[in-house]
What does this fold into?
Amino acid sequence: MPHATVVKPANLKALWKLLPSISPKRKYLAGGTDLVTGANTGLNSAETWVDISDLKELRGIKETAAAVIIGAGVKISELEGSRLVGRWLPVLHAAIPHFASPSLRNMATIGGNAANASPCSDGACALCAEKAWVWLELKGKRRKLPLAALFKGPKKTALKKDELIIAFEIPKWKHEGAYLKLGPRSYFGISKVSVAAALEMDGGSVKTASIALASVAPVPLLARKTADYLAGRILNEENARTAAALVKAEVSPITDVRSEAAYRREMAGVLLARALGRIGRRGENL
Ligand SMILES: Cc1cc2nc3c(=O)[nH]c(=O)nc-3n(C[C@H](O)[C@H](O)[C@H](O)COP(=O)(O)OP(=O)(O)OC[C@H]3O[C@@H](n4cnc5c(N)ncnc54)[C@H](O)[C@@H]3O)c2cc1C
It folds into this structure.
């Protein structure tokens, strides 16, 4: 591993004061599960790592009247035990057991998962389906984006230099959720395809839908046409089949070491139909 200096500001104010005095070749260090792996494989050549794990401003899971707020520094394992996640965010809750192993979930943060901008990110994919927004800060100035707009390509984001992800704001909306992931094995498996489905139901009909997929596009993908099709329809087998066909047309997978494009496209449809079936069976339509 190449030599890197680590600095650790105690709070956000100290961070913005510190940055001008350190090497411009710097990277934030949260849980380190992507950053350290990248350094070991030569993908990350930062001279200074700015350890943000002490920033209390990035901690905690809170609620307001209209939203759940998850700090960027929250570990995946904290999400797992959260009453608010269990109550309001069924897709994110369903995604957590698919995320690496318990020991890795104790290190990895949800902010690092989004900032890393991998097309196969489970946390980012689930949060996109949950209609999350992301709060960013640069030198004391905050802005807010729909999370899906953060992703510009594999490992590319809309973050400006030094801009920090502070938190995710997820509106409270009554919905059911499912998260299905196809990977080589249950632990440490990077997905070949993942599907996140959030449905607001009105009896046996879908009122609104939000569908996101991972590993089938350059970014965690919101399948807007498929979601629009489902809205206002009965959740039955026929409509689930049509939605599966639509989602296959929305994805743009590649062939790589983990899978082939044609297989990924096919499985995007299969997993979506299964996810809809899982939600539908709770309401006994499918
Ligand atoms: C063995 C293994 C298995 C894995 N399995 C999965 C899996 O199943 N699903 C999955 O989605 N991921 C998986 N990952 C990837 C990784 O664990 C996640 O992406 C993790 O959430 C990254 O968070 P971190 O805190 O470790 O980020 P770090 O490694 O600390 O940082 C990652 C990147 O984000 C930047 N960054 C971190 N926090 C912020 C912030 N608040 N604002 C701006 N930039 C920031 C860093 O500078 C760095 O570029 C796996 C990784 C490993 C090593």
User: Anything to note?
Assistant: Residues 261-282 form the longest helix (22 residues). The pocket of flavin-adenine dinucleotide is lined by residues 27-35, 37, 52, 72, 99-100, 104, 107-109, 111-113, 115-116, 121-123, 164-165, 188 (CB under 6 Å). The two ends are 52 Å apart (CA to CA).
